[in-house]
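Throughout this chapter, every protein is written as a compact record of paired, labelled lines. The reader may check this reading against the record printed directly beneath this paragraph:
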Amino acid sequence: MSRRPTITDIAIAAGVSKGAVSYALNGRPGVSAATRERILAIAAEMGFVPNRAARSLSVSSAQAVGLALCRDARTLGIEPYFMELISGIEATLSANSFGLTLQIVGSTEEELDVYRRWWAERRVDGVLLCDIKLSDPRPQAVAAMGLPAVAIGGPLAEPVIPFVWHDDVEPVWQVLRYLHTLGHRRIARVAGIEGLLHTSIRDGAFDEPVGELGFENVEIVHGDYTGEEGARLTRRLLTSRPMPTAILYDNDVTAVAGLNVAHELGLKVPHDVSIVAWDDSPLCRLTHPSLTTLTRDIPSYGSKVSDLLLSVIGQEQSMESRTFSVQCEPAQLLPRGSTGPAPARTAVA
């Protein structure tokens, strides 16, 4: 057949009505098991693929989930975290015959406008909210729309939509205890975007142990997760006095950029400065030395996000019993070649 086969073609070949073909293809009652099997076999032989738009009208489902990201599109292609997260999301959605609709937006207002349009046009059955902020209007807004949604991140103080999250406090403490044991007393952190919930949580966790562990100096500088900003902030830290002897980065892209700056300044890693990255992408294993990281299973994170949203879309749980929080395993410290004892002149016994 030179053209795309239709339900009519299948009906003629099977000697049944178009209604019977529709029942068989959509798994609905109305045809015998033998007739259903014959229709499905003919459809497969013809290479029939259901029209998604037509199917969505018949079953009141778009079979799609939306994700709008308020990030620079140029940075997403080199951001391993988002690529791994989306791979986990997409794998679970595909296994359930759902597609992923992705759009880059420039502001929260634009993002909410996208959700309103998608929902009004029946283009998605639910959405995923990324980069949760401290004072975030999006959860309340999508809840008011009646749009099924799951937040990627947390914990949310007063949740109106379900969320999936990691503990960001314990991993920070793991790094600080580790660096303290190695004799480091002057440490810094190249953090992510201010105003994001997980950035704020990490900020607080980084500040708390100053008195308890006896660090001499702790400094936090905020960036935007890009390599350019990571390099600029690292250069500032490593040319200041007193210079930190260890730096923790909130993602792997900035950590790799920081490592390059250390080399540029003639510093040896880890002899002069130790480096720790958050998220263990392949980038961290391709550097010299390889980067010590806080590693976590990002694809699994994305899969859990999709599972929860699909359960909300399918209304498998009543509002009273619905799971509002799914906590994933926290990141674990994985030492590699970029960390070592503090320089002898600064180490403290």
